[in-house]
Request: fold
Amino acid sequence: MLLNRQERRASVAEIKGLARGSRDGRDAVLNVLYLVHNLADAAVWRRAEMLRRGGATVEIAGFRRAGSLIASGDDGSAIELGQTFDAKFAQRLMAIAAALPAIRRSVTPRAPVDVIIARNLEMLMLANRLASAPPGTPSVVYECLDIHRLLLRQDMVGGAMRQAERVLARRCTLLLTSSPAFVREYFGGINPLGVPALLVENKVLNGGGERGTNPALARPRVAGEPIRIGWFGALRCSTSLQRLAAFTRAADGRFEVILRGKPALNEFDDFHGFVSAEPFMRFEGPYRNPDDLAQIYSEVQFAWTIDYFEAGQNSKWLLPNRLYEGCLHGAIPIALNGTETARYLDEHGLGLRLDDTDVATMMASLGALTEAQVAALARDVAEHDHPHFVLDDVECVALVGRLASPGRTAQPVLEAA
Reply:
């Protein structure tokens, strides 16, 4: 059972005591250094904001992606360590190697650091070097939100990568990850690190838009108006693009797909040309997260959460941001059976789960839904408990409290009561 409001307020007050320690007899917040591989990733700044809301001070250092601006949310204090490129892991490792010798001079925090969080495996190299430097001995936390395909190769390269991960994680006190399947399938099976894991789901940070009625579902549809599927966020799955195009053509306009976000153009032959040639598909460009979430999801009835980018591996295990964003704002999630996302929907009694995304299957399930069935699916989402989709102050404070207590056994940020 989820904590009620009174219990949650009490939890905030109690856990804040863990997030604060005594330094020279004075009450002091936890000082966090956040090392990131991509300063253009808005999720980096959402995590930093979560830590700040939990009572920590946060300084950020990392690499800028070529052709990208630092994401919104930056307060101007990020330390840039160099430039990297999308989908070029070897180049990223070379950038890390170039930054490593001078990292102690490049990163000079304003206050003594209590915790270093390394977002992604390659940043652990820098975190370990910094943690070994005086003053103090900060703890190191490994934040892993995706399992890179190189780590899953069944050859010498994959074996070497997993060995490197084990070595780099030796001094870590905690592993932060976003899906139970990452722990169950990878860190608890394929490559155990011996580090306690803490689940922090990709939920919407409180303040990312008030939950309300989805206008696309609340009002009767105008005759001839299509049912809209929203595919928002990091667009990197060429298979999804092709399957959605084939389905909307087969449905002859009854369904329309709206795409928003940042397409990984290197993963498509011609993303913009393909979409512009499709009669029932349109790309509406980037959006601000979380500012625009309520608006963009209010225009669709369904949220596409399927991803074949690394089918059977990372895509099977992850719980994507769009799952929580869509549910918060009333869009019905569509997932693929056999994935962690489908497992989540099944556990919560939400959404539509497909056996596959062949045209025939989609027409027989999604395409055959009646107006009443769509309304019932939408009602299930709208009536589901709000805390399942939103990170509030309890989770923020609990996370910082856990970071401040490296000896404790890791538990999910939001515990049962």
Remarks:
- Residues 5-19 form the longest helix (15 residues).
- Confidence is low (pLDDT under 50) at residues 1-12, 18-26, 409-417.
